[in-house]
């Protein structure tokens, strides 16, 4: 049955799982937005010294704009994810995209710290509205056979924001001033909006809920679901090891190899590249495992184990080559883990897709804060990174077995998401 969206909006058609090819072209709007979100998340770091000097504040004060973005996202995402689950993806996606455009325009116009912080907080709110809706939209419109691949490509493009978007933004800022980077983000978002209007159907997707109990109970409903509750707990531990330890990676590499600041900055390319590889690999491996009838998330524990190995190599591997190999493995594990988690969130409770995805991000940020605090409690950053990072990664790997064991058969091989979006009229249909 066709949706009530505009005539050329994507329609929902019933098909058996695994029968539809992966048409990446119908996701260009959300993929572009994910790339811009990935760039936005990391863009302030290279701009910070110039930005702080221009608005005449300390770098510490200017860094509050980063805190504003992350904090607002973490707090509001579950509530905005619920709105997406109840009222539809299109509305929250478009609202988030428009607010993202306006917030970046406001950042470009900032002449003082107050407006900069407010604009960054609004950008966090925009990403919190659109992000969970994007993951839910991809999950419910891609067929079972290619769902992991579609989510993996989306996460790879998010990671590419760090690998490609941030260097491009920094180069643009060097040539035309730091404000030009935010102008470029606003312009990119303006390009994404028409694609979203064309490619994201109106209405509430099958399997979502437009009614329910009070908002507070509904927001926390994911924690009442056994598989999701275990998954969110593992997510917290994994990212305490992953991003919490990453906070001190630069310090560790400088202490071990006496690297310059610019050389440490280049390590970020390995971080982003590892994330891209892990996202694409995780999506394909997961799809193949499910197609072969194996357990739905057979690689979830493996990502935790690989993370522990990567962190250990980064901190203790003899020679810089092995240390940098460890960094790459570290973020291959991170990318693969995130895709398994997004797939689980999309399939374990279909009526909570966006809310569950939002909780993944919120627990990621919570784990990051806890991990950074725990590593910082050690006198030596290398020791703290090894003990907390590798230790919690091992804990996450073991706990992931409990996530798999707790999945019911219907969750291990979901039959709920049989709706796959029909191609837009006139849209390319290449696989």
Question: What can be said about this structure in brief?
Answer:
The chain is an all-alpha fold and 431 residues long.
How would you describe this structure to a colleague?
The chain is an all-alpha fold and 431 residues long. It has two domains: 191 residues, MFS general substrate transporter like domains (Growth Hormone, Chain: A, Up-down Bundle); 193 residues, MFS general substrate transporter like domains (Growth Hormone, Chain: A). The chain is 75% helix and 2% strand. The protein has 17 helices and two strands. A two-stranded antiparallel ribbon has the order 1-2. Helix 1 runs parallel beside helix 6, helix 3 runs parallel beside helix 5 and helix 13 packs antiparallel against helix 16. It is globular and about 55 Å long. The two termini are 24 Å apart. The N terminus and C terminus are likely disordered. It is a multi-pass membrane protein. It comes from Streptomyces galilaeus. It is found in: Cell membrane.
